[in-house]
């Protein structure tokens, strides 16, 4: 899997001319830029898909597809395509386009130093860092506007369908006591609470825990967590899932339980934050994010790499002394 990510990144770099490389490539030590992410529409640093040649655009998609699971790559492609749908709905006054997604590279996949990239635009942000053979890919944001397109009451398109349906199924499986613990407010937050902050500030966990759920409901809570982690290819998702402290998870719901009305949920653990929000545009505009408190942007991998490098240097100095 790492071989695929590395080869896809090298392929993209090899297609760039000197000017494009200057715009696309930054140092992996530029922490301010690496941590400056977002999911609102707007111009980003790097290269925009709409200005790239066809083979270069395909190479960017190739990078994305080597990290994402097949079903999530489909979701991401649908999210990007929705920019044209949204632009048409708005009468074109905000000049949106499905080519308005940017790629920026941090370092290069040559040698032993860490490297990574970000592919980002409206409702999509995938942040990848590779260090010492390990891959990190959070923050991972997917959104959709419109979240659901229908014809005569039947769904034509709904790229984030299961993000909503799994949580509703979990609520349905809860007994009345567990549901009272899970639904912590009748009101919804304005957006996902973590927003596009560079750091997640852990808040006091609220809601219901696995110990307070029946076995079927507890299993479904884990299924929800696994579903978000399965946004990545199975090798990466397996690693992430193994790190979850399952007994310390909390699930909470805010807002209405009725379909078509604003709602929000959060799954929180010691090193896990999943947020889902559907409040804008008459509850037809979804934001979702998966984050890791200490591991976003691969900061945990970078710290381990730096520690190992210092240890190697110190060991070498001691042996030569």
UniProtKB/TrEMBL annotation:
InterPro entries: DUF3500 (IPR021889). Residues 190-211 are annotated as: Disordered. Pfam families: DUF3500. This is DUF3500 domain-containing protein.
